[in-house]
Amino acid sequence: VTRSLMFNPGPTNVHDEVRRCLLETDVNHRDPRFRDVLAQVRTGVVDLLELDDTHVCIPFAASGTGANEAVLAAVRGPLIVLVCGHYSCRLADIGERLGLVVERLTFDRWQGIDCDVLRRALEQSPPGATVCLVHHETTTGMLAPLERICALSRRHGATLAVDGISSLFGHRPASWSADVDYYTVTSNKCLESVPGLAFVVARRSLLEPPTTVSRSYYFDLRRQWLEMTSRGEPPFTQSYGCYLAAATALRRLDEETVAGRHARYSRLRDRLADGLATLGFEAIRLAGEQATWLQLYRPPPWFDYADMRSRLAERGINVYTDAATLQDGLVAFATLGAIEAQHVDALVEAIAGEAPVRRPSEACT
Ligand SMILES: Cc1ncc(COP(=O)(O)O)c(C=O)c1O
């Protein structure tokens, strides 16, 4: 087995116990063992978000985008999307592709969401609107002011759909969790499982009649939910190994606790920032609240991202920064997944080891 260290924003390193689950594949999705693990995963997700009977978990065999598409395919009425970076822009694109009437409220990705703009839009929008946003914009590391957005949506009777793909399980649920009507999350980020499963956590009452017919055949939330609850099975083929891995990852997260995971990610981010500071990287402080596991840096002049990325890959270390962030002269390092302090130190040592022996700034002194 080839092992790499992952400092990209997902998929992540997973624990060996999770990885071994993938060998268990000779079980079909109509088998009682599959029903057991499906039930464990569905309950485990809702419990870890500290939601009770008001919400249900509906998994799909998909990446996170599939969960977002399932939610948007179920939306009725106009859609207000808070666009504040790459992933929220994609939500608006999906809504338009599905034929929804989409209002984009666009914000500077470095300044974050202005709740007054949302308030004015809600005051003018017809009843029955859905507000949709990304909690953690994974390209900047900025967290949306979710508590205020929840309060505004509640006050105006809007449905609230939150892409929590890169925040849930790494951030502690707060008092606002139950105000969100739809959350989406994936198996391969803060849950620390393998890619392949996307979860919609939906308010139960929105799945009950009267509901609109989904605009999607495969990503039909209501049918997926009905079949999973009435027969205990998914309507379409799914991987037992993937579910077993997710159930194991959920158990491990329950043992670590979401607060513990949040603290570990924060410690690792700070340790990496300290190490990179010695090499001349400046950690960027954002205008709004920052996520725990993603940090942007202004690299020193000698740092050549493309070259460093391929040289780190030769050492089995994965890093990734998106094109827009690179264009702003910044690089990103993620510290999520089944990693510990020694792995962060290995990254710092590897970057130091690949740095020019005499950096240009030193040559001038
Ligand atoms: C906030 C957010 N939304 C959506 C996605 C898309 O997820 P996927 O690539 O699993 O479809 C990502 C991926 O990183 C993300 O960070």
Written account of the structure:
With 365 residues, the protein is α/β, with parallel strands linked by helices. The chain has helices at residues 16-20, 32-48, 64-74, 86-97, 115-124, 146-155, 204-207, 221-230, 240-256, 258-277, 305-314, 323-327, 341-354, 360-364, and strands at 5-6, 55-61, 79-83, 102-106, 130-134, 136-137, 142-143, 159-163, 182-186, 197-203, 282-283, 294-298, 317-318, 331-334. Bound molecules: pyridoxal-5'-phosphate (PLP). The site of pyridoxal-5'-phosphate has 13 residues, from helix 3.
Low-confidence stretches: none
* Structural classification: alpha/beta
- Number-wise, the strands total 14
Helix percentage range: 40-55%
Main sheet specs:
7 strands, mixed
**Which ions, cofactors or small ligands are bound in this entry?**
pyridoxal-5'-phosphate
Strand order of the largest sheet: 2-10-9-8-5-3-4
Order of helices and strands: EHHEHEHEHEEEHEEEHHHHEEHEHEHH
What is Rg?
A: 21 Å
Terminal-residue CA separation? 47 Å
Give the structure's gist in a few sentences.
The chain is of the alpha/beta class and 365 residues long.
Quick tags:
365 residues, alpha/beta, binds pyridoxal-5'-phosphate
Spell out the blueprint of helices and strands.
Blueprint: E1 5-6, H1 16-20, H2 32-48, E2 55-61, H3 64-74, E3 79-83, H4 86-97, E4 102-106, H5 115-124, E5 130-134, E6 136-137, E7 142-143, H6 146-155, E8 159-163, E9 182-186, E10 197-203, H7 204-207, H8 221-230, H9 240-256, H10 258-277, E11 282-283, E12 294-298, H11 305-314, E13 317-318, H12 323-327, E14 331-334, H13 341-354, H14 360-364
Parallel strand pairs: 1-13, 3-4, 3-5, 5-8, 8-9
Antiparallel strand pairs: 2-10, 6-7, 9-10, 11-12, 12-14
Helix pairs in contact: 2-9, 5-6, 10-13
Bound molecules: pyridoxal-5'-phosphate.
Pyridoxal-5'-phosphate binds at residues 9-10, 63-65, 87, 134, 136, 138, 163, 165-166, 186.
